[in-house]
TrEMBL record:
It comes from the Bacteria. Keywords: Membrane, Transmembrane, Transmembrane helix. One of its GO terms (cellular component) is membrane. Residues 7-126 form the Methylamine utilisation protein MauE domain. One of its GO terms (biological process) is methylamine metabolic process. Transmembrane segments: none annotated. This is Methylamine utilisation protein MauE domain-containing protein. It is found in: Membrane.
Length: 264
């Protein structure tokens, strides 16, 4: 019974770490313990944290022996540090979310997030000393393993406000005017459009001089030349939709608009 319980912790932790890594990788808000750092370090820290969680998740499942022990000990250390960081975050700003699952972790740090982190810390500590990998245990899994995992997953779900937040977002998607977008993604959409290809020859630089949001549009201004004239080439990229519309306008830098176009 005890051995089965310890083995199920490996699967639970691997799943939690992978979900956390995926959520942090797509999040641009840098919530949670990242806010304890200077602003310039928050995004790099979040990306590094996501990468570390993904590596540990993979290690828990595939490594055994001494290497597996290192990964299991590192996982326990990660959750110990996370628990301390959450306590500090709660004291510093009680209204901030834990950031455990990226932008879904919006509920202020409270007893549920602290209890969940402590539970994961205990689960990670329980895996130290296991002889095999997660995959090896999975290959020999019994109904008892499944029952134990189901019970623990239910406990974790009860301690996870992110599930309710995810369901709320699925039922009521964020309006496009309020939707967060990354600069890199919008530039990729722009550079794949016909409007970009049509006006590319006018641009002095392929990097925008300025970018801004207006309702459901992301706009970028590029310096350009049209013959002897200095112009501004402004592109507008629709934020939502699988095939977002792209519009373009070429304006004389001193006088006004001289050409406009758009794609459906």
């Amino acid at each position: 019974m005890i051995d089965a319980l310890r083995e199920t912790q490996v699967w639970l932790l691997a799943a939690v770490l992978l979900l956390g890594a995926a959520a942090k990788a797509v999040d641009r808000t840098a919530q949670g313990p990242a806010v304890l750092l200077p602003v310039r370090l928050r995004q790099p820290f979040t990306r590094l944290h996501a990468a570390l969680e993904a590596v540990l998740a993979a290690g828990l499942m595939v490594l055994s022996g001494a290497a597996g022990e290192v990964v299991r000990a590192a996982t326990a250390a990660l959750f110990a540090v996370a628990l301390v960081a959450l306590l500090r975050l709660r004291r510093r700003d009680p209204e901030l979310g834990c950031g455990c699952f990226g932008g879904l972790s919006t509920e202020p740090v409270g007893w549920r997030s602290l209890t969940r982190c402590a539970l994961f810390l205990g689960a990670a500590a329980a895996t130290v000393g296991l002889p095999g990998s997660g995959w090896a245990a999975l290959a020999d899994a019994t109904p008892r393993h499944g029952a134990l995992l189901a019970v623990e997953a239910a406990v974790v779900a009860a301690l996870s406000p992110e599930i309710r937040e995810a369901w709320r977002r699925l039922r009521s998607p964020v309006p496009c005017a309020l939707r967060e977008v990354s600069r890199g993604r919008m530039l990729r959409r722009l550079r794949a459009s016909g409007e970009w290809r049509e006006r590319r020859h006018l641009l002095v630089s392929t990097e925008p001089a300025d970018t801004w949001r207006h309702a459901c549009w992301w706009l970028a201004r590029f310096p350009g030349r049209d013959g002897e004239r200095s112009v501004d080439v402004v592109f507008a990229v629709e934020v939502s939709g699988r095939r977002p519309e792209v519009r373009a306008l070429v304006a004389d830098a001193a006088v006004g608009a001289v050409d406009a176009g758009g794609t459906g």
